[in-house]
Amino acid sequence: MKICLVGLGKLGYPMSLFLSSSGYQINCYDKNKSIYVDIKNSSYLNYEENLSDFNEYKKNLFYFDNFNLAIKDTDICFITVPTPSKQDGSFSLNNINLVLDDIGYFLSNKKINNPYLINICSTVSPNSCDNEIIPYLEKKYNLKEGIDFCIVYNPYFVALGSVIKTLLNPDFVLIGSKNKDSIANLLNIYNSIYFKDIKFKFLSLKEAEISKIFINTFLTLKISYANYLQLISLSDKELSLDKILDCIGEDKRVGKSYLQPGLPYGGPCLPRDNNAVVNFVNKIGTDSSLNNSAELINKIYTSYLFSQIDYLKKNKIKKISFLGLGYRPNTDCIEDSVSVALINYCLENNFDVSVYDFYINSDYKNTKIYKNFDNFIENSHLIFLPYKDKKFNQLFNFKNLVILDYFFQFNNNNNNNNIVITNDLRKINLDYLNKDLKRFDNKIIKFNK
Mean pLDDT, the chain, as a whole number? Predict the structure, then answer.
């Protein structure tokens, strides 16, 4: 059996490596040919964790600049192209349709004994497979689902930066199809990769489409719930947020996953999946207030962060540094990043903004981008941390910094170099950050939560 994979983006390329461990030949195609050069030079997505674990299987990967050659003699095609959000919140199928055009042309000109398996891994809106994708191929290319081709919806629950890690250790594998018997080749692939028992959930196409985005939006509810408690704790200095969340998460009905101190959710999945759910439930006449409430808390929390900038401005402090542009570590994705939202707000208010990022080398607007971490620290006084990252432990090699941290990723044992850690600038003495940028009084050590 040979596999075709279309789309070598932030999901597709790690997935091609993951699939290569099956031992089957993987024919890879992407319309962006520059990706092939980066892959050859080992400079593509190299911040992703665990990529090197698959070096021994790269012999199974073949790259094509012609789709017809890539799909030739294959039995299944994995589609991992982007499905950007439309204005109404639903997902665009334009990129998928372009791939379907190529597959439709291929199938129309080839006699096959068994239905060709088309495995859609990109996130789509509910009813997309039944109402749009299948009719698109059937009407435009005079093909029949179940006879000429079979559509499978097989999305993954991954996080950028640790795609392979989550592919190798899934809670379950979600497969939507019209007929379970039609997915034998797909199951053969997974059975050749996983050496432990993995749960498979077999649903209809529509059920799988709904499950995918509703799982993600349940996470937005948990994150917003934790952030709601964070906003409450900020109003009362006697409250310890991490202790409260730890207590609540101890209840097995709630669980501790995603119930942690942090920032508004962002990135390329959670915000847009939430909007897609709102669009879907509104279409079927169901109230969307539950998901709208998660968005509301996200916006309120972001407004609180803006108020922190306003407080600095009020106290004539207009210099701030950001240790990261992205929404999480091990990725260069800045989509819906809290850091970017805050940087934009700071620039609008004429702040002097400095940035150092362990994973992103590009410039960003009128910020000062540092390429050297030590130089960044030497010229920083107040540093905003956008996510949890072990690399931030390097901060404790320095002295006399104010760190704005909402993840409680450090404790008092870390704080041995006269560093002020806080999640509310109103709780510290801003004389340490005056307009002359004087260093702090070495006698004062403060840790705020």
Answer: 92
Coil, helix or strand at residue 399? coil
- Spell out the domain ranges in the chain: 2-203, 222-449
How far apart are the C-alpha atoms of 177 and 261, rounded to whole Å?
38
Q: 279: which 2 tokens?
A: 């669009």
Give the model confidence (pLDDT) of 403-418 as tens digits. Answer: 999 999 986 555 556 7
The amino acid present at 51, given as its one-letter code, is L
> Among 3.40.50.720, 3.30.420.10, 3.60.21.10, 3.40.50.300, what is the CATH number of 222-449?
3.40.50.720
| Mean pLDDT on 232-243 | 90
- What is the structure's pLDDT at 284? 95
Higher pLDDT, 361 or 369: 369
- CATH homologous superfamily for the domain 2-203: NAD(P)-binding Rossmann-like Domain (3.40.50.720)
Residue 62 CB-half CA count within 13 A: 17
Per-residue pLDDT tens digits for 100-115:
999 999 999 887 788 9
Percent of the chain with pLDDT over 90: 83
State the DSSP H helix or E strand holding residue 2, giving kind and residue range, or none if neither.
strand 2-6
Q: What are the two backbone dihedrals, phi and then psi, of residue 368, each rounded to the nearest 5 degrees?
A: -90, 110
Residue 5 class from Cβ within 10 Å (0-12 exposed, 13-18 middle, 19+ buried)? Answer: buried
